[in-house]
Amino acid sequence: MLQTLRRIVQEVNSTRDLNQVLEIIVRRVKKAIDADVCSIYLLDDNEKKFTLMATDGLNADLVGQVQMAHGAGLVSLVAQRADPLNLDDALEHPRFKLFTALNEERFHGFTGIPITHHREVLGVLVAQSESRIRFSSDVVNFLVTIAAQLAGAIINAQASKQITVDSKQNKSEIHRDHRPLTGQPGSPGVAVGKAVAITSSFSLSAVPDRPAENIEDEMIVFSLARESVRQDIKSLSFQLLSDGLPTEDVAVFDAYLLMLDSNTLIEGTLAKIRSGNWAAGALRETISEHIKLFGEMENPYLQERVKDIRDLGQSIFNQMQGINDLPVHKLSKNAIIVAEDISATLLADIEKTKISGIVLKSGSRTSHVAILARAMGIPTVVGVNELPIMQLDGCQLVADGYSGKVYISPPDHIIKEYSRLISQEEELSQELRELTDKPATTLDGINIPLYANTGLVADLTPSKESGAEGIGLYRTEYPFMIRQRFPGEEEQSKIYKEVMQAMSPKPVVLRTLDIGGDKSLSYFPIEEDNPFLGWRGIRVTLDHPEIFMIQLRAMLIASVGLNNLHILFPMISTISEVEDAMSLLDRAYQEVLAEGHQVNMPKVGVMVEVPSIVFQIRHIAAIVDFVSIGTNDLIQYLMAVDRNNANVAELYESLNPAVLTAIKLVIDEAHKEGIPVSVCGEMAGDPLAAILLLGMSIDSLSTSAASLPGIKWMIRNFSQNEAEELVAKAIEMKDAKVIKNMLMASLEKKGLGGLVRAGR
Ligand code: PEP
Ligand code: MG
């Protein structure tokens, strides 16, 4: 069964057309369980009716025509209960409804399995038999397993189906119904532009279709790449034979060469290029046809060839990448990047002016790529599960970074409305720019210094222009990430000095190296099953005092003559880690002094990112000068929600009352001990959450330069008293949604709604 299951899933995943996907399922499943009928009914968009979408066993002419109202018949009963139903005689069930056109009265045995995706029933998989016997529990379990695995493929194919591309790939003629796709807001703002699909992993299977700019050129690209792979294989095989490897072991290369020279590969790909696809898209199509063909074969040896075909296709594609430019170099000003994921390093390479938005299938609001997009002020939507990346290339898109909605090829009125909102936003940001030199002081006179987060982007200009009163978080990882080896003391010192000099005399908080989790160094790979619960931040640097000492010394030396340095330790989970870090800092300080540098001991802080530290603030306060709450990680660990996982992104909620209670506890405890508290996680840049932080008497906030003016606008329009009242109410509430509504209403009442939705 497992083998059959794998084969069906593999076949379905390599097919994009919804009807084909459904047909494969019914055909394969019927055969696998030896039923008389297998059918799939899907719920329509308005969730009113179930439509027979595919069948093997019933009258196939009625596919797309037979519809069942919600509330009538067994199919809808299965969907209502979201539970399998297994009957020996369906005809006797009170909910049975006869569809005479289907000739169903012959079939007695019935089992219906809901097809569910993220708690939503998409449809029902039905098997029927002529005999009056229930399907065995093995069969039901098999159907449950297959329905669970296929829900995602159906969602993807459904999303793709809504985009119909004409045969010449004329993107202007792409149509879609106007229901937007929904993801998570990644970075505020709205973008209207053309999608550019980027395959970050450079995997052939993720290559989009794209019209060939010049058919001749694309044919040459393919032929050269194929020839080059051919030469590589030949010389490798020759080499191995000369090394004494037995001929039979080298035979696999002959098989590769045969495939490479096969007419179906060459002519199949060239024909697809001739009909308008670019070389990479055409190759992907040919290879996936081959994979499907071999995957269907019963012979296990031939099935195994699927991997070889995939590898071969990938090799040709790898060669092509050397010949063809990657789309990232072809970005234009109104481009909206569409991808599974993109690395923070790639994004840092793309100049902001070159793109107007980003839409990603993976990630959540606090993924580092979203943080970087916010820092760059690029409207971004993340975690769009249904994103049909390949088909979107070249489509007109509207991405709403406030609501997380993405419209594909929307009608004029939607484009017009969003363009109007974009101009309003520009007006608003112009007004906000006028606040640059004004203090962030509440209506009742409380001043909340606003600092900027930086480090991922080397340029400090935006931080200075935003009116930041210093750098509240400099993530030192970036200078480490863009190098081929650990940067030395002098190299680091130069970078840190530049930052401190640029901001002097304003304070600069340099955070020590925070690698691990989702931030890796190519030259220091950390491979773990649970990287977010593993070797990250201070745990790595304490285990490598040689790396830590170089960094601490570099920071201290850089501060000579400036004295605006603050040092911050990330990912602290025990008091002994703080003590160990402090003693290394003390050692570095003594060394630097002994070498004759006139340096003052900097102020030192600890990040509150791990729940254990929330309850140990008293001890922390006895050792360090300040604490800074890293809400991105604190929420992840409090809620047990991976901050990068789109599947659980809805649970990642900064306004959850438990999160608010924890933050309030940290602030209250730290104040009792007389040390200041800052928030440097993304929550500080969220106008709704920042109202509550203000009400909890936070001492300062540190956020991206792009979010800072909006936060200042909010602070200048609220009194701390008002904010305190909102905190008192929020803490008593049961869930984040209610709290959010209350805060939205209070922002709207003050005319500040433009901070959290599109428009003014
Ligand atoms: C945080 O966790 O809130 C934080 C600021 O650190 P980072 O986002 O770099 O993990
Ligand atoms: Mg963190």
Q: Which helices and strands, and how do they pair?
A:
Elements: H1 2-13, H2 18-33, E1 37-43, E2 49-56, E3 67-69, H3 73-81, E4 85-87, E5 109-117, E6 120-129, H4 137-161, E7 181-182, E8 184-187, E9 190-198, H5 215-242, H6 247-261, H7 263-274, H8 279-295, H9 300-323, E10 335-339, H10 344-349, E11 355-360, H11 368-376, E12 380-382, H12 389-392, E13 396-400, E14 405-408, H13 412-433, E15 450-454, H14 461-465, E16 471-475, H15 477-481, H16 489-503, E17 508-511, H17 538-543, H18 545-558, E18 565-569, H19 575-594, E19 603-608, H20 611-614, H21 617-623, E20 626-629, H22 631-639, H23 657-672, E21 677-679, H24 687-695, E22 700-703, H25 708-717, H26 720-732, H27 736-749
Parallel strand pairs: 9-10, 10-11, 11-12, 15-16, 15-22, 16-17, 17-18, 18-19, 19-20, 20-21, 21-22
Antiparallel strand pairs: 1-2, 1-6, 2-3, 4-5, 5-6, 7-14, 8-12, 9-13, 13-14
Describe the structure.
The chain is α/β, with parallel strands linked by helices. It has four domains: 2-159, GAF domain (Beta-Lactamase), CATH 3.30.450; 181-202 and 326-428, Glucose Oxidase, domain 1, CATH 3.50.30.10; 204-321, Orthogonal Bundle (Enzyme I, Chain A, domain 2), CATH 1.10.274.10; 435-755, Phosphoenolpyruvate-binding domains (TIM Barrel), CATH 3.20.20. It contains 27 helices and 22 strands. An eight-stranded mixed sheet has the order 7-14-13-9-10-11-12-8. An eight-stranded parallel β-barrel has the order 15-16-17-18-19-20-21-22. Strand 1 and strand 2 form a beta hairpin. Helix 8 (279-295) runs antiparallel to helix 9 and helix 18 (545-558) crosses helix 19 (575-594). The protein is globular. Magnesium ion is lined by residues 570, 609, 630, 632-633.
